[in-house]
Every structure is written in C-alpha cells, then in structure tokens.
Amino acid sequence: MKVSELTNDGTNPVAKRGKLTLKLREILNLIEIYQKEGGVIHRDNAEKMDSLKDFIHNVVKEDKE
Question: Which residues contact 24 (CB under 8 A, 6 or more apart)?
Fold first, then answer.
C-alpha cells in the first residue's frame, strides 16, 4: 500500500468504507425487521424510513461495484 492511499490519521479509507457499509447493512436489516414485525410507524416517519432505506441500498450497491 502506498502512503498516498492512507488518510491523514494513517488509516485506509477503503477499509473505513467497508466498515461503514457493514453498519449500514445492519441498520437496513433492523429497519426491515421492525417493519415486518408490524412496528407502527407514523406516515411521515415511514416516508423518512423509506428514504433512508433507499439511501442505504444505493451506498451498499456502489460499494459492491
């Protein structure tokens, strides 16, 4: 690995992105479980949750490419 591939704190940004993707997948799974379990979600919050799910799907999809 080249020094130019590291961030200022000496960590690899690709590794950080991988950890972020894993956390986003965990969040997405929790949202989906909550919705399947019949969690009552106010309509405004449901729209926000759907938007968040779409965002997470896009980030995870980009990370795979």
Answer: 56, 59, 60
